[in-house]
Amino acid sequence: MKKALIMAIVALLATIRGYAQELSVFVYDPGQEITNVRNAPGGKVVVKWKSDHAIMVLVDENDGGWWHIVDNAYWDPEDEESTGILAYTESGYWIHQSVVAVSTRNYGGESINLYENNDTVTPVVYTITEETLLRPLYILDEWVNVQTIDGKHKGWIEKEWLCGNSVTTCP
């Protein structure tokens, strides 16, 4: 009985982990030379990235304004072959939501709506008509709660309309 209970708990944890919601974002920290990566939300700085590097990050949860980094890559503009991957650590790596961004995929000038909630039946709170940078705040299924960089507009957008690559457009 005890063994069956332990196996059920392990299976449940594996299932929960399997449904982690991930989002590709890039570091966008204008006016700063260094962007800090921490070992916990608000924790110790463990990595300092130069802000002039193209840094793409895969995140999977937001804890009080801090994104948990699942994977990363960066490109040094002075060394086209450089990449820097964070080494494994049990505590993980965290980056503040105020220094990451995504861009919209309306490359052809399509209108994209931000909704009050994570569905298309709630009111539209803002319409984006050109490629725009957004700060991701929270992921829920195939929706992302975002805010415009200037902080004036906030709402939910379908994840498919977002690009986490700072160097080029997304397919």
Description:
The chain has one helix at residues 2-18, and strands at 23-27, 34-38, 45-50, 54-63, 66-75, 93-96, 100-104, 112-115, 124-128, 133-140, 143-148, 154-158, 162-163. The chain has 171 residues and is mostly beta strands. The model is unreliable at 1-19 (pLDDT under 50).
Task: Fill in the keyword field for this structure.
171 residues; mainly beta; nine-stranded antiparallel beta sheet; two-stranded antiparallel sheet; 10% helix; disordered N terminus
Low-confidence stretches: 1-19
Structural class by helix and strand composition: mainly beta
Number of H/I helices: 1
The shape is: globular
User: Could you tell me the number of beta strands?
Assistant: 13
Question: How much β-strand is present in the residues?
Answer: 35-45%
N-to-C span: 50 Å
Tell me the radius of gyration.
18 Å
The ordered string of helix (H) and strand (E) elements is HEEEEEEEEEEEEE
**Biggest beta sheet attributes:** 9 strands, antiparallel
If you average the pLDDT, what whole number results?
84
Helix fraction?
under 10%
Summarize the structure.
The chain has 171 residues and is mostly beta strands.
Walk me through the topology:
Elements: H1 2-18, E1 23-27, E2 34-38, E3 45-50, E4 54-63, E5 66-75, E6 93-96, E7 100-104, E8 112-115, E9 124-128, E10 133-140, E11 143-148, E12 154-158, E13 162-163
Antiparallel strand pairs: 1-4, 1-7, 2-3, 4-5, 5-6, 7-10, 7-13, 8-9, 10-11, 11-12
